[in-house]
Amino acid sequence: MKRPSRDHDTYAMARERMVEEQLARRGIADPKVLMAMRFIPRHFFTEESFWGKAYGDHPLPIGQGQTISQPFMVALMTQALKVEENDRVLEIGTGSGYQAAILAKMAKKVFTIERHAVLAKRAREVFDRLNIHNIAIRIGDGTIGWSEFAPYSGIVVTAGSPDVPQPLLNQLSEDGGRLVIPVGERGFQRLKVITRTGDRWQTTEDVGCTFVPLVGKHGWAEGEK
Ligand code: SAM
């Protein structure tokens, strides 16, 4: 098998192409999202054997039966959050850490929760390697949120849920906090964007998508079909 290139300029060019062809050309217009995705080296969040595929238009396996999401989906969810530089953002489903790193480039502080300790540990190592210091990781069930640091200006769930977990709605800031979450069957969901104003939550629906299941108290039960 051909070894992946270790020349990081090769990946900078692939990244630029990814942003142009997969994101900008398909309607991702927020300059902060495009900047962050140009900046963060996605290949570091995959096994070295996948580096050659890291900028392709698809998800990739990261171990534990989980995936790093397709670049377009990361961009779409990030854009829907409308992140501002002083925001505190919560992510459910750290996975590789890539989405959290994108958010960390745009927000003041990112909190991220992962149920698999081995993935959380690996993500922490990549953040350290890239000198990203504004991300806190917790190992556990993200469907109950992280109430100590609530409210959040944005919450993004990067796994598919049968319903919208109530604790996440409660942990949104009252002045326009946004929850972005794929909701639906195990094999197919729709991306929902829910905005809180006081005690009102307004929902809009975006594209269809397929995420690995959100497993937890307010998600799918382990092994549930
Ligand atoms: N955001 C990730 C990235 O950038 O690589 C992609 C995440 S992957 C599609 C979904 C992740 O959600 C998996 O790592 C999975 O273990 C995690 N997950 C599923 N249910 C969870 C829960 N209740 N709490 C925290 N993490 C969960």
Short description:
The protein is of the alpha/beta class and 225 residues long. The site of S-adenosylmethionine has 26 residues, from strand 2, helix 4 and strand 4.
Give a description of the structure:
The chain has 225 residues and is of the alpha/beta class. It has a domain at 59-209: Vaccinia Virus protein VP39 (Rossmann fold, 3-Layer(aba) Sandwich), CATH 3.40.50. The protein has helices spanning 8-23, 31-39, 71-81, 98-106, 117-129, 166-170; strands at residues 60-63, 66-68, 88-92, 109-114, 135-139, 154-157, 175-184, 189-197, 200-209. It has a 7-stranded mixed sheet, with helices on one face. It has a two-stranded antiparallel ribbon with strand order 1-2. Strand 1 and strand 2 (66-68) form a beta hairpin. The longest helix is centred in the first third of the chain and has 16 residues, at 8-23.
**Estimated radius of gyration:** 16 Å
Order of helices and strands: HHEEHEHEHEEHEEE
* Uncertain spans: none
How much is the average pLDDT? 95
Distance between the termini: 37 Å
The percent range for strand residues is 15-25%
Described by strand count, sense and barrel closure, the largest sheet is: 7 strands, mixed
CATH class of one domain: Alpha Beta
- Tell me the overall shape: globular
Provide the spatial order of strands within the biggest beta sheet. 5-4-3-6-7-8-9
The assigned CATH architecture of one domain is 3-Layer(aba) Sandwich
CATH superfamily of one domain: Vaccinia Virus protein VP39
Total DSSP E strands: 9
- Proportion of residues in helical segments: 25-40%
CATH topology of one domain: Rossmann fold
The distinct bound ligands, ions and cofactors come out as:
S-adenosylmethionine
Helix and strand content put the structural class at: alpha/beta
How many helices? 6
